[in-house]
Amino acid sequence: MSGYRNSCKRAAVAAVLSMCAAAAQAEDLFNGRDFQGWELLAGKDMPPEGAFTILAGGIIASSGQPSGFLATTGSYRNYRLHVEWRWSGNPGNSGVLLHISPGPMDRIWPLSLQVQTKHGNAGDLLPMAGYAFAEPPTSAPGAQPMVKAHAAPDSEAPAGEWNSADIVSRDGVVDVSINGVPQNRVTHAKPDNGRIGFQLEGAPYELRNVQLEKFD
């Protein structure tokens, strides 16, 4: 029996160490002080501070204006991205942009894969400006924008409460969970790498704990 207990203890310690190692590898994409490593692309010559404010505790508050997006200056391929957001006013529309790449634009939106955080549609996937993946959209033929709707029942928290999105991108496969519920998956995503961004679409919102863990 003592051998079994020791085995369980070793397994528990190994699990804790594994979780600690994963946490140690995660990178905070916002440093909590300024917007180093980010740029605002909104059709106007303005710094990120023109649309975003850093609050106590490292919370990033977005005014939702002007229309455009905040993007990392660095590019990423295989990773796990954790994002927490909430609506600070009336719930509205926004999204996380993955694999932002040079190429055509859809009005103000870049070639990218949008993970929808729009109230009531969290977890939908939208291929922007010619982005592609293998699965067919769930939107009507010819509809714009094309949408691959989230698969499970809506798992978004009530307006004003914090939500979490966990996004895993690996070799062209993208998995999305909202508040711990698997909601979407696409394969053969192209491009499969690029910058990461957050949309501004008129509604103010807040971000926190934006963390990225790179895979080898």
Automatic annotation (TrEMBL):
GO MF term list: hydrolase activity
Domain 3-keto-alpha-glucoside-1,2-lyase/3-keto-2-hydroxy-glucal hydratase: 26-212
InterPro entries: AL/BT2_dom (IPR010496)
Protein origin, superkingdom: Bacteria
Signal peptide limits: 1-26
Keywords from the named record: Signal
Protein name: DUF1080 domain-containing protein
Source organism per UniProt: Pseudoduganella ginsengisoli
